Amino acid sequence: MRLGKAVRGVAATLAGVLALSACGGGDDAADKGPANLRMTVWSANEAHLKLFNEIADEYRKSHPDVASIKFDPLPFENYTTTLTTQIAGGNAPDLAWVFENSAPDFVASGALLPLDEKLKKTEGYQYDDISPATLKLWQDGGKLYAYPFSTSPFGVFVNTDMLKKAGQKTPAELIAAGQWNWDTALTVAGATAGATGKAGLVIRDFDYKGWDNLSTLWTGWGAQAWSEDGKSCGFAAPEMVEAMTTLHKAIFTGKALPGPGTTADFFAGDAAMTVTQISRASLLKPDGFGWDLVPLPAGPKGNYSVVGQAGVGVMKKSKNADAAADFLAFLTNPTNSAKLAQFFPPPRQSQLTAETLAKTNPTLKPEQLQKVVIDGITNGVVKPSHAGQAELSQQVRAGLDPLWKADADVKAVLEGVCTKIQPLLAK
């Protein structure tokens, strides 16, 4: 990614921007009339944006000091790079969605406004209802720098019509028989691809670039990108080699996953299964194919869950920082949190019940919400995140590139990844 060379790491970019930026921020807003707020988001989904805008319109009814609230979708695959480029170019948003993989950099950079005092003092906010476990990634020095907007476990969406047409058992049947694991999932995916000419299983947003999405597979082997303290590379560990060998065979021998350069959209009916989060359920068409949602297949280490977590923070240097923080408190209050739970599983403990989530998730059954979402949040591990993630991600992606060939030496490639990133981890 060429742009990444100019932006060597999120933390470095933010530090430079902060050093060069003029002092001040929210206190200047009153001198310039009503505020025009902009919040960057990763999704351009119409249903997501419609709900955001409805909440924003409701807020503006009682806040004449805010003239407009714009939700600015940035492409998912380049989201963080685009956001940091905007910041570096003096075009920073007032609020920003931040992915878990860049949380350490944003939190430590000083770019975000502390939110604790504002949220705790907002009437009816019920700050203590937020699960402490969901706050950890977004805290530093005892202060909260982003609200854990979405704590969303990964599950497997299934095109049951396609599997039945291919003569394969559905995951629900395999679960009932105690056979839902990666071996059977990949076997079913390969057989379905061969019978239908479509894709078997797609790990959404991987596309041979978003390597951290592969944690939805390798965690089942007990593998990690790096150690818990972040100082040692885990790519060359036996568990990772075994997991990635399984993946490599599934791609190039079993044809269970689309190969490099091939794309397939599950929600358009082009694949039998996809690993993704429930926010994608909005892409399902009411008159489309039969479908199901099930937990990730078990790995050699047993059942597990992987969670993607996004936070929303206020840029400290925003000239509308005070107004932005106030809107964030409104956007994430108990009432609106319940509305947003339709797409983005909330961190509020009182709302993490199948009954509560079912009210705003009519397309999902209570059993699906319990097993995939609630159990997943309770037991899941968060996708890989590390300080300097931007540079690390570039090095991991480059190091994995040789793996996506039929004759690749998996162990040697993974050892090469560690050679690339160990100096960065040791800093």
TrEMBL record:
* Matches recorded under SUPFAM superfamilies: Periplasmic binding protein-like II (SSF53850)
The protein's matches in InterPro entries, at most eight in alphabetical order, are given as: Bact_solute-bd_prot1, SBP
Q: Which domain of life is it from?
A: Bacteria
Q: What is the protein's name according to its record?
A: Sugar ABC transporter substrate-binding protein
Q: Which organism is it from?
A: Micromonospora reichwaldensis
